[in-house]
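Checklist before submission:
- one chain only
- standard amino acids only
- sequence pasted in full

Submission:
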Amino acid sequence: MRITLVHPAGFNFVPGQPDFSVFANRMPPIGIAQLASWLEQFGHSVQLHDCLGPYAPPGIAANAEIVLATEPELVGFSATTSGFMDAVDMARIIREQRPQTRIVFGNVHVSSLGAPILEHFPEIDALVVGEGEGALLDLADGKPLATIGNLIWRDENGKIRVNPRRDRILDLDELPFPAYEKLAGFPHAYHLPLFSYAKRHGATMITSRGCPYTCSFCDRTVFERLYKTNSADYIYRHMKYLRDRFGVHHVNIYDDLFTAKKQRVFDLCQLLIDKPLGMQFNCAIRTGHTSDEMLVQLKKAGALMVSMGIESADPEMMARHKAGVTLDAVRDTVRQIHAAGLRAKGLFIFGMPGETPETVKTTSDFILSLDLDEMNMTKFSPLHGAPIWDECASGTSGDLIEDWRLMNCLNFVYLPEGFSSREEMDALYNWHVRRFYDSKGYRRRFARRLWQHRWSLWHIIRHLPQTIAAARYFSANQAQIEAAKRDFARHPRQPLGLQPMLSEDLQIDNRVAMSSERLSRRQIMLQVAQATAGCAPDTPHGNAE
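Returned file contents:
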């Protein structure tokens, strides 16, 4: 079967203009690249189209025409919440011009919302929830739809059917390496965030699925409660493949928590020490999942920087949103990272329920005291399926603008009751960012390693004409851009108030995470069982017959 997998661009406030944010960071869509190599392993012809790729045109219609030119029998969209409506608009064009093509959506947004998506969007034929490899392969092989696990679909009468969940892939080493070669411009036109790498070219790897923790703001609906990993040997061979095939010399390991299985980390480090590849890498850790010995080994193996999710420095915010992490433990971990010769990057979230100007200033002071090498603060976006969703959507502790296109961690769609306006939040956010990057400590650290980042400097110089052109455009059209933001209207077809359709396990996890009494899973399980008892499906969708 001819299959085209699509990574939609998501919303851009400046229609018809390229998304300039990719200048600083353009990472390959690993999810669809993984699916492509998997499907081709079984004889199917797969093409990829990255709407944020270096040669992709701006505009939905132009990207849809590129997909249509591949003459696909099946088009699969991997859409996050912010990219979903753009994907729908592309799907509508494809449906109109090529009605015989089957259109399938997957990824976290549809995994969280499920069947109601099909009720609102007739151009979508089916949804793949959870892991996509098995369901997509069954679709490509032409198996009866009623037999395909993880599939939500319409039968010949238009009735929506929800198939049972399938067994997960338990051994990630069975998967082939992602089909990086199918991404136009890889690796030279894809790059990690500026100044996060010292060697070119760079690439992204994912070596695990899921996370053993349940933070309030995190959506885990694709992988549910499952946490599984590639082996150390597989990761080593994957890195070697990237180096030998594409000339990649820096890898960003994009796992939620790379160090959850400590022995795997030690085994990988030993391989890289015994048989050096001449590569560097970055990875993510969590306080409590490191040791002095592990960090030293990571450094010897080629690690450059480790990231750690801290989120806030306010004790009440920490207890509410990231249980089990203390500020003293964070300080100790940063000291351990620096003692091992590694760079420390802190990850923070601004604007969750309970946030106030005072908690932000507390966090800002704490960040400066840590002597971090890098810092990233995202604007909180509630996501369907995250434990915090119900509270945000209910309006009990703040105001939510439920506009999917803006839910990309770049806009304050949620206004906590501790703030008077989103303008106030933006001003405080900008103050914090300037404060960190203008600090003497950061400037000193950056100056010391500037030569290491010569490839990032060269990237900036090469794109200086585009940078100047973009600056001139924004300067000349500032009034129109501000008016577009101010008068921005929700997509006319986006539904409101859809409730996440979570498995029982995820419902329990979410209630445990949000319980002020810190109830056990067993106590919550009893509550869920009582609430769902006798609630058989009496809706247009139910289990497949």
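Reviewer check: The mean pLDDT is 90.
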